[in-house]
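EI: anyone free to look at a 179-residue chain?
SC: sure, send it
EI:
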Amino acid sequence: MENLDLGKACLDNLELDMRQAAAQFPEAEYLNLNGSPGIVTHMQEAGKLSELRNFYCKNLFGYDAGDMEALERLHELRELDFDSVPKEAGLYLKKHWKRKRDREEIEEIVRRYTRYFNKLNDRYEEFIEIEEGEDIFMAMQRLYEECILQGEWGQADENAAPMTLSEIWDVMDEVRENW
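SC: here you go
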């Protein structure tokens, strides 16, 4: 059977070899698997679905945390929902997917914060000089300490936080203009 060019695949009541599914639907953007219950083998092959944006999996077994590591290669993945799955796989996803989502959220906040100062700087004829730039970075450091290390993410250890302060400053350096 030749490959079908489907952007969306929904499969129910199944025993699935993910190698075959990845080969059959290599450009899938949406994948919804419902085992009711079912078995999936070679789940790590889902990591080859490079266009995958939404991945839903329910009542499927036969894989573990090691298989879930392959999902880290899915750079387009925006939504992931696994329900009634093997415990080890679920724990891995909870830890790693939440960290990835939190990191993306923090990065977007830092980008908006920096773009705001770019706009102010343009509007008021480049008023941001060395001292003001340092103040802006120090304000971001304070936000990082209070919101990430002590606040919502509650990570006392900077290395356990979704992003380090150094990574945040790198994002600011990437976005800032003329200051």
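EI: The two ends are 58 Å apart (CA to CA).
SC: 👍
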